[in-house]
Specification:
With 499 residues, this protein is of the alpha/beta class. The chain has two domains: 252 residues, Rossmann fold (3-Layer(aba) Sandwich), CATH 3.40.50.300; 182 residues, P-loop containing nucleotide triphosphate hydrolases (Rossmann fold, 3-Layer(aba) Sandwich). The chain contains 19 helices and 20 strands. The protein has a six-stranded mixed beta sheet with strand order 6-7-8-3-9-10, with helices on both faces. The protein has a six-stranded mixed beta sheet with strand order 16-17-18-13-19-20, sandwiched between helices. It is globular, with a radius of gyration of 24 Å.
């Protein structure tokens, strides 16, 4: 493997309103090397990638050097005009974004988008051949025709991300950037995607700079690691050395935040939630899809069920049935011996994966909680509503300084605490957590998981925790459910190995 430096960052400083957002003294990524950038939310990871690909907001002040090795010389990307950068972006520098459903155009087939991306820097005569070759390289060789003809929503999360990787690598770029490329994928798919991605980068002998909070994957695939905290580089080095012998206390804390398996305990069997022989079908006849097949489970207060499975396995269908957003085709769902209502509320609440999308951007934290309390208790006075809202927010450890802040003024962890507070306002007996910590960095994830354990202990809540992360599932679960095609099955050996 060549040790030729491809991208070299020197004394990079990014400022806004006389405040330094990011300072990197030095960062180098060689040809054929995988360099991972890790750190908490707001540390400057994504800002680093946007600097390299020339997509920083215009109001930021940038100094230092970002050098790209091309035609046997270093070119300072920071000195390029927007027009000149167009010759580099997409051709010499490719980027894979975190959420392919947002990055891909929902109104165009994947084939048209791949072709459009290639034609920016190439000719139509060679396009189809090279697109086909890339789809094979990223593990889609058995379904090329389907991928080319499908719209993004018709593919699984792993397939969409592979399309994005193929698109970013069409011109064999010198540098590939990846911003959390596997966050939304299940445990098995994320390993497969990273195996294909890193193999492709090594075959092209390009420099891969990969932002991630999934430290198990970083330990497995990265050659070099840079650790950022609040815009400052605090540790850097060989991946094995840094992970096995970290020098900075923050890095030690970051690595120790990986979820630990839950100690098994005896829970009194007083089944409050009973799901019995539930089926859910969509469509009719030949077009009928069996989303959930004869599923049953019984749960007692203080018990946690972890629900895992690939995309389309029936996890979200189960959640929708429990909160009456969908109606079961047959079977029973009972809470305290009574069938749940056909319309919400059912006594079961849900916390969603993306807290920013779950919150009204125009409402403050106090208002978001108060409106629910008022809706459930129209007879109480405003002063008592506010008191109850503040108590619920305090119970979930919400930052008192942000009580009157709006979602875009909060961190990801604070937004998720607010969503948990909203769910608790109605005093539910069952809480569904749908990938509720998937988008959080390790330290914030640990804080939220600890918070959920404390709340469960205090309120004896039943948790149904939907996740693709086996480490997270092991840290919470009393019972397990692996769904595949709507059917509960034994957890596959490959999942246990990859997890």
């Amino acid at each position: 493997m060549s040790l030729q430096p491809i991208i070299q960052i020197n004394k990079l400083r990014i400022q806004a309103n006389n405040k330094t957002l990011l300072y990197i003294e030095s960062l180098c990524c060689n040809a054929g090397e995988i360099h991972s950038i890790i750190g908490e939310s707001g540390s400057g990871k994504s800002l680093t990638l946007l600097t390299i690909i020339g997509l920083l907001p215009k109001n930021l002040i940038v100094s230092g050097e970002v050098l790209l090795w091309h035609n046997n010389t270093f070119i300072d990307l920071l000195k390029l005009s927007n027009k000149d950068f167009q010759a580099y972006r997409g051709k010499l520098i490719g980027m894979v974004f975190q959420e392919p459903m947002s990055a891909l155009n929902p109104q165009m087939t994947c084939g048209k988008q791949l072709l459009e991306s290639y034609l920016v820097h190439g000719t139509k005569n060679e396009a189809i051949k090279l697109i086909t070759e890339k789809l094979v390289k990223v593990g889609l060789g058995q379904m090329i025709d389907r991928v080319m003809e499908s719209f993004p929503h018709q593919l699984s999360g792993g397939q969409r991300q592979r399309v994005m990787i193929a698109m970013a690598s069409l011109h064999n770029p010198l540098v590939l950037l990846a911003d959390e490329p596997t966050t939304a994928l299940d445990s098995f798919s994320r390993n497969q995607v990273m195996e294909d991605f890193t193999r492709l980068a090594k075959e092209m002998n390009c420099a891969l700079i990969w932002v991630s909070h999934e430290l198990d994957l970083v330990a497995k695939f990265a050659n070099q690691i840079t650790v950022l905290k609040k815009g400052e580089l605090i540790e850097q080095g060989n991946a094995n050395s840094l992970i096995n012998n970290p020098q900075h206390p923050y890095v030690v804390e970051l690595l120790e935040a990986v979820p630990k398996p839950k100690e098994q305990r005896n829970i009194p069997q007083n089944h409050v939630l009973i799901v019995k022989n539930v089926f859910k079908y969509y469509g009719k006849g030949k077009n009928q899809v069996n989303a959930l097949n004869n599923y049953s489970v019984s749960l007692s207060p203080g018990e946690t069920l972890a629900v895992i499975g690939t995309s389309g396995s029936g996890k979200s269908t189960l959640a929708k049935l429990l909160v009456a957003l969908e109606k079961s085709s047959s079977g029973e769902i009972q809470l305290h011996g009574n069938n749940i209502p056909s319309k919400p509320p059912t006594g079961i609440q849900m916390v969603f994966q993306d807290p920013f999308a779950s919150l009204n951007r125009n409402h403050t934290a106090v208002y978001a909680v108060s409106e629910i309390i008022e809706l459930k208790n129209p007879e109480i006075k405003e002063i008592e509503i506010n008191q109850r809202a503040l108590k619920v927010l305090n119970d979930v450890g919400f930052d008192e300084r942000l009580m009157n802040a709006k979602p875009d003024q909060m961190s990801g962890g604070q937004r998720q605490r607010l969503c948990i507070a909203k769910a608790l306002c109605t005093n539910p007996e069952v809480l569904i957590l749908d990938e509720a910590v998937a988008a959080l960095d390790p330290l914030i994830q640990k804080q939220i998981l600890d918070l959920l354990r404390d709340i469960q202990l205090a309120r004896q809540l039943i948790y149904i925790f939907i996740t693709h992360n086996l480490d997270v599932a092991k840290s919470l679960a009393d019972k397990w459910c692996y769904l595949d095609g709507g059917v509960e099955k034994e957890i596959p050996v490959e999942w246990l190995i990859q997890g």
